[in-house]
Design brief:
binds adenosine-5'-diphosphate, Rossmann fold, 5-stranded parallel beta sheet, alpha/beta
């Protein structure tokens, strides 16, 4: 009997990748055999970093995890409907992080819609680590724009990338 590999998708914008994202990626890696981090290429969100830059950043920040967690990891961009991407990559699980109540309403609705599109794919929510749950890419960018310190929210290399991008270095 062949054992099918469980493929999971963790989708997001990652503009930029934060310690909150990293925590969800680490924990997700323990739940699947192959984890695909899907970087959404949705120009209407007007991201600070280009799709190539975000992919490079996510790849660089997560490279150490494959060996540590005994999974295979892949970073890919997608610009189609998420459920179409899920089917293309053969994922059976979508992983999402859940922060405050504010995330819940949106995630609840999206999960229900995705279930209608493909009931064979489960969405699994990981509760945010309480010490990281306030972290949001949007706020990291806002704090950096106003010269605030972001070292508690992103790795030192991502901090460097943000400061360079904003012309502060
Ligand atoms: P999106 O455009 O899908 O909101 P994000 O990059 O903001 O993309 O987030 C991707 C996923 O990571 C979402 O499931 C989001 O809830 C989760 N996430 C973001 N920040 C955190 C955090 N600090 N702790 C836990 N999960 C988080």
């Amino acid at each position: 009997m062949s054992v099918q590999k469980r493929i999971g998708l963790y989708p997001g914008t990652f503009d930029p990748i934060t310690l909150g994202h990293m925590d969800i990626i680490e924990r997700s890696a323990g739940l699947v055999d192959h984890l695909i981090i899907g970087v959404s290429n949705n120009p209407s969100k007007k991201p600070l970093f280009s799709i190539e830059e975000r992919i490079d950043m996510v790849q660089r920040e997560t490279a150490h995890l494959a060996a540590e967690k005994g999974v295979t990891l892949e970073v890919r961009s997608f610009d189609c409907l998420m459920m179409t991407f899920v089917e293309q990559i053969g994922a059976s699980v979508i992983l999402r992080g859940l922060r405050a109540v504010s995330d819940f309403e949106y995630e609840f609705q999206m999960t229900a819609m995705n279930y209608q599109l493909n009931p064979n794919v489960e969405t699994v929510f990981l509760m945010a680590d309480p010490s990281l749950q306030a972290i949001a890419s949007r706020l990291v960018k806002e704090i950096a724009i106003y010269d605030g310190e972001i070292s508690k929210f992103v790795t030192s290399t991502v901090r460097e990338d943000v400061l360079v991008k904003l012309g502060k270095k």
